[in-house]
Amino acid sequence: MATVPNHTKRRLAAGDLALGMGVRQARTVDIATVAKTCGFDWIFIDMEHSSMDVDLASQLAMAALAVGVTPLVRVPGHEHYHASRLLDNEAQGIVAPH
Questions:
Q1: What is the pLDDT of residue 1?
Q2: How far is CA 22 from the centre of its chain?
Q3: Is 49 tagged catalytic?
Q4: pTM
């Protein structure tokens, strides 16, 4: 299995600045391309404060990886399955809720 590079982690390790944008209302995968075009290194997919489900968050994460943007997801709860489902579906980082 090939490892997908984490561009944000690489930039931070090099001492560079990594800029990101929050995603709560976007409902299409085009937001990943918008983020890349605007120069963002990562997107913050917020499942805690939106009606976004796992399917949409996973699609956004996959689209972000395809354009070289790191997908980070704030999960809606502390139960392990929230994080594991998103990590299995291309999220490169998890933010705990609350």
A1: 56
A2: 9
A3: yes
A4: 0.93
